[in-house]
Design brief:
The protein is mainly beta. The chain has a single domain, classed as Thrombin, subunit H (Beta Barrel). It is built from no helices and six strands. Strands 1-2-5-4-3-6 form a six-stranded antiparallel barrel. Strand 1 and strand 2 form a beta hairpin.
Length: 86
């Protein structure tokens, strides 16, 4: 059984931010299952601050990429690890 990384706000590690553009983040997903069911879920930075929502999922099923729409007024491009609310 794989250990799922959690932060203090009871959320799971979504993955590592690879790129940011046009108020969007491209995240290489960790080993979460059923990420496609998480569309529109809240995404947070390492401090637990809400930075966006999952917009799209693409790529290989076992380790997909996730597009996150950054919320207005948030500087999400500085995040390295992002988490999804559970």
């Amino acid at each position: 059984m794989k250990h799922m990384s959690k932060n203090k706000n009871n959320s799971k590690l979504l993955g590592i931010v690879l790129h940011s553009y046009n108020r969007k983040l491209i995240v290489r997903c960790n080993s979460l299952k059923n990420v496609e069911k998480m569309l529109n879920s809240i995404v947070m930075n390492e401090r637990g601050k809400k930075i966006g929502r999952i917009y799209d999922v693409f790529g290989p099923v076992n380790r997909p990429y996730v597009v996150v729409n950054i919320l207005a007024g948030v500087a999400g491009r500085h995040a390295k690890k992002v988490f999804v609310a559970t």
